[in-house]
Amino acid sequence: MSLENVRSFNLQRAEGGICRTSGMSVASCTRCKVRALAICDALRPEEVNDLDEIVRHVSLDSRTTFIREDDPASVVYTISDGTVRFYRMLADGRRQIFGFGMPSDFIGLTSGGRFTFSADAVTDVALCRMERGSFERLLGEKPHLMHRLHDYATHELVLAQEQMLVIGRRTAAARVCAFLLAMRDRLARQRGPSVMLPLPMSRLDIADYLGLTIETVSRIFSKLARERVILIIPDGIRFLDQETIRRRAED
Amino acid sequence: MSLENVRSFNLQRAEGGICRTSGMSVASCTRCKVRALAICDALRPEEVNDLDEIVRHVSLDSRTTFIREDDPASVVYTISDGTVRFYRMLADGRRQIFGFGMPSDFIGLTSGGRFTFSADAVTDVALCRMERGSFERLLGEKPHLMHRLHDYATHELVLAQEQMLVIGRRTAAARVCAFLLAMRDRLARQRGPSVMLPLPMSRLDIADYLGLTIETVSRIFSKLARERVILIIPDGIRFLDQETIRRRAED
DNA sequence: CGCGGCCTTGAGAAATGTCAACTTACGTGG
DNA sequence: CCACGTAAGTTGACATTTCTCAAGGCCGCG
Q1: Set of chain B residues whose Cβ sits within 8 Å of the Cβ of A171
Q2: Is B80 strand, coil or helix?
Q3: Is residue B175 within 8 Å of residue B210, measured between CB atoms?
Q4: How large is the C-alpha radius of gyration of chain A?
Q5: pTM for this structure?
Q6: How many CB atoms are located within 10 Å of the residue A70 CB?
């Protein structure tokens, strides 16, 4: 391991902790395209107005860091568009990405009043921002929302445990294949099944999610492409032989 | 990686899914020693009777498997005594332990109606068992309990992410040191600080928790002992130089 | 006293990381 | 529109960590 693991992440800084508000941001939750998948779905149509009261729609440029580890967790978000990465870093620059947030994902499960992770926009991103106080008041009034949030947290826990298994006990090639399948399944739930898989995150992001180096990830992508299991296209891949990927994900 | 990763885990089987009921099992939640640390603490003293109505106290011999992956998640538990391991296994015998359950821990955060992990008693164990239906009814009646459970789930998620960082980005020695410190802190919350750390789980369990092999864990324990950083004692260790362990946990 | 389970240690193998060079893609300014 | 500069990705050669396999030690229990 190199002593100083210096890497340039080339990040923007979100001004004053809040991000520029986009022109699109006045849209109402009523017309939200991802509501059915988000925790907001727990509210009945007539309750959605209560959401509009506390939501501020914000847009972030790609590479913007909008949550920093140890920040007071005074806001929560729902992602309405784009991809986000959640991570922690070690003093020497090593980074572990905990997951990628996609539209409908909730951001704000924290313990002890502070964020235990940082978050950046991987692509341009649109978020619904709520003050934590307002959100918790709403939770108190709407048991269904509380219940839905708890289900979400539990699901995230199951995913985190699955990822522990992937990182702790699978070979490098299996991790990459498991990642591709998990991303495909996630996207399918949003937009239906497809052999095209957009991958907005970089190889370095994938490496830091899987506990590998960028070179190892790159070699495995190349090998899969050479064997005609996937086709590498700009910002994504196309699945050519899903059965082989499924098999490799087990190793 | 060996093709067949055969290991003998030497397990008992819990009869009929339920375990022998011990003589001690009639004790009431009112006198429970771990209630203050468990989610039950969310209930006011006069509400604890509602718990007694739905709790069955059960005892398990060490090595008993009492939850199997994919079982319908029809019960939940709180651990009142002993140590439990939670894990998933791959087809070839590789195992990832997600965590060790200790007194006051809740068991039953599941998504989709089935357990996504297995659980064994590491030591003899005492559990409070509740039918999931009864427990969820209670949750519905007691918003404070629901809130407390959600906090518990969120905390578990934060711990799982921390463990992802440990497994994905730390060296073998750092993983072992981080494990020792985490176990110490956890025990300290229960019984106050101590330089004595009992380790009821085997080296194999520790290896499967840290994504390492038993040999690697053993070598690191030996090295720490040779350097007088820890003292290895039967079923545990004694900390001799905590500063060094803290430093090593960062590598 | 002997057996089985767990732990330890050593030697060599394998997987993955490191370092360095090179290619490709893309946006910007001349 | 081209040329350049930068960031991202790829590939090769070599280093290192961790794993694998094998042997032996320790200890509690029948």
Answers
A1: 1
A2: strand
A3: yes
A4: 19
A5: 0.93
A6: 10
